[in-house]
Design goal:
The protein is an alpha/beta fold. It has 2 domains: 116 residues, Nucleotidyltransferase, domain 5 (2-Layer Sandwich); 82 residues, ATPase, nucleotide binding domain (Nucleotidyltransferase, domain 5, 2-Layer Sandwich), CATH 3.30.420.40. Helices cover 29% and strands 28% of the residues. The strands form 2 sheets. Strands 6, 7, 8, 9, 10 and 11 form a 6-stranded mixed sheet that branches. A hairpin with a 2-residue loop joins strand 2 and strand 3. The longest helix has 18 residues. The radius of gyration is 18 Å and the shape is globular.
Length: 236
């Protein structure tokens, strides 16, 4: 199985090459440089491994949620490469990718969050099962004060992602009695995306390139002036 993965939904840009269980990755926190870096990194990874593009079985992509521009770019890159090679695309939730990078030694229940700006966070709850993940709830975009853990047996969770740093760490403060650990600096990585995508490909979850769609979770990309004033007032 040979798979190329693009994850650009946050300020981190990363590309990974999955080769029969082995993963090579380029990763950098590089706001506004994703379009400049992603394809050259992909070519470099393939060259280093001695693999031609035509040898790839599929292209993986972090479908979001995340920054609108970054998500659109990732989908466009994956579709462009896949269409040129006549290969399928494996879209994977960026929140699942983030959860997959959580500490293996931590609790198996993982709350993955990304700062969505505009006073909101993207949030998804997952359960680690062996080398895979199971979603415990639908992914949402909502205010940090509205995030709740799914009903369960009261076990501990670990939190990952920049949503825990949003609103002065409100989410971590609210859920601190249930969280064994929090990594508020964690960002999704293409290496984790590649591993999840390889498993998804084996399950038959790849789609035709033109069917790969972004997961924005919300339609509006900016607050109106009235909404901005209301948000500022709520923070006083």
């Amino acid at each position: 199985m040979k798979l190329l993965a693009f994850e650009t939904a946050t300020e981190a840009c990363s590309v990974a090459l999955y080769l029969d269980g082995q993963v090579r990755e380029r990763f950098e926190i590089a706001p506004r440089r994703h379009a400049e870096l992603a394809l050259p990194w992909a070519d470099a990874l393939l060259a280093e491994a001695g693999v031609a593009r035509t040898q790839l079985d599929a292209i993986a992509v972090g479908r979001g949620p995340g920054a609108f521009t970054g998500v659109r770019l990732a989908i466009a890159l994956a579709q462009g490469v896949a269409l040129a090679l006549d290969r399928p695309v494996v879209p994977v939730s960026t929140l699942a990718v983030l959860a997959a990078g959580a500490a293996v030694a931590g609790p198996a229940r993982i709350l993955a969050t990304i700062d969505a700006r505009m006073g909101e966070v993207y949030a998804g709850a997952f359960l680690r099962e062996g080398d895979g993940l199971a979603a415990l709830d639908v992914e949402r975009v909502l205010a940090p004060g509205a995030v709740e853990l799914p009903a369960d047996d009261g076990g501990e969770w670990q939190g990952v992602g920049t949503g825990f740093a949003a609103a002065d760490g409100l989410l971590a403060q609210r859920l601190q009695s249930r969280l064994a650990a929090v990594d508020a600096a964690a960002l999704p990585r293409a290496a984790d995306l590649a591993r999840l995508a390889a498993a998804a490909f084996a399950r038959g979850e790849a789609v035709a390139a033109e069917r790969a769609e972004p997961a924005y979770l919300r339609d509006n990309v900016a607050l109106t002036l009235v909404e901005q004033q209301a948000l500022r007032a709520s923070r006083r």
